[in-house]
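Subgroup meeting minutes
Present: P.N., E.W., G.H.
Scribe: E.W.

1. P.N. recapped why we're keeping a running log of single-chain structure predictions: easier to compare across weeks, and new members can see raw inputs and outputs side by side.
2. G.H. added today's entry (457 aa).
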Amino acid sequence: MLLAKTLGSSTFRLALIAIGIFGLIVSAIFAYVYWSTLSYVRDRSDRAIMTEQASLDAAYARSGRDGLAASIEQRIADKDVADHVYLLAGPGSAVLAGNLGQWPNDAAAQGWAEFRASLPRLSAEPALVRAATETLSNGDRLLVGRDISDLDGFMAQIRAAGIAAIVLIIGLAAAASIGVTQRTVSRIESINATSRAIMLSGLDQRIPLHGSHDEWDRVAENLNLMLDRIQSLMGDVKQVSENIAHDLRTPLTRMRGRLEKAYHAPRNGEGDAALIGDTIADLDAVLGMFASITRISEIETRARKGAFRTVNLVEIAGEVVELYDAAAEQVTTHLVLAGDPAVLVTGDRDLLFDAIANLVDNAIKHGRPGGRVTVTCDNDESGPVISVADDGPGIPAEQHDRVFKRFYRLEQSRYTPGNGLGLSLVAAVASLHGARIELRDNAPGLLCRLVFPVAEA
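Output recorded in log:
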């Protein structure tokens, strides 16, 4: 099954194309080397033959036919030139001198020729001879050549070695391609199998890692992280759905109860007006909840970056403190603004106002009655910072990450006004501005810091 998928995979087809191209390139290189070597060796042999031919032409010019024949016989007797071939033939092809028995049939009267001839002195087998021929002024024909059987054998060995090398290289490349493709298909099948298991049984499955730390392990790690993130988001969706159902049940139940009671009771102007007022208040709370959800979603899609400008956090924080000063006085909380006179960031002024307002509102609601809430703006070494600190009960460290989820409320906060969306909006605004949220123990109370990135010069 795996072999069939390997042979049918696009990776294997691409590998075959690569092998074919590689084979053509290697064959072309081999052909170039072969023909270059053959041309070089034959060129040297031809120059030697032409030099010998010129020497014999000079002997003929000096001494005529007899002198030429004597020179040929002298060369044949010289053992140092045993691979040379000579033949002087008369106009009727009668052999006058030389070590060939007759004029070769394949040799013209003028030019170059290659033929096989029996040369007992050189080899018992017919030898491959390359020769230059010419017709002398008296009608005689002269052939000067060399035995190139060794050259022919050498080139045959080169051909055999080159063909064997090409076959070996292509074979090894094919085997390597099948191995690599099979490994690739195996890892892909592992991912596919996990994907099918996830579709059948849920998000608990993960792609197995091989521990090789190669690119496939990195892909598997990223996919597993993505699955973790999806599982976390699905959990958040489930929790949000449950929280929405829980938070809507109470006001909707109240509204139904009032309407049912009014339906069965006699009409009463003042009572009906109070009923309508209470119902409108509950509906406003529900609509406000959905408006907050919509706004958080809009912020998280980064649709509001077009309104970014350079703003002063101190001015925004001052407006928030002024707005919530009356609410703080109602619970005898001392609300103060401290820090640097100017802290500049790039962002959406309205969103930053809402985020700071939510932090201050939470600090007043959940802080200690008669306590202190401090809003501080600083230019820290890590960037512009705005922090809100209270001296209330604080938030347990293990729940710091959870409080930014939608509708999440601490147990002690379940009976205070709110819908658990304030810190979710703060988190969305911080993410949009590239800011980091830090929750710290204020001993006592909670310190919430928004650390903004340093503005580029």
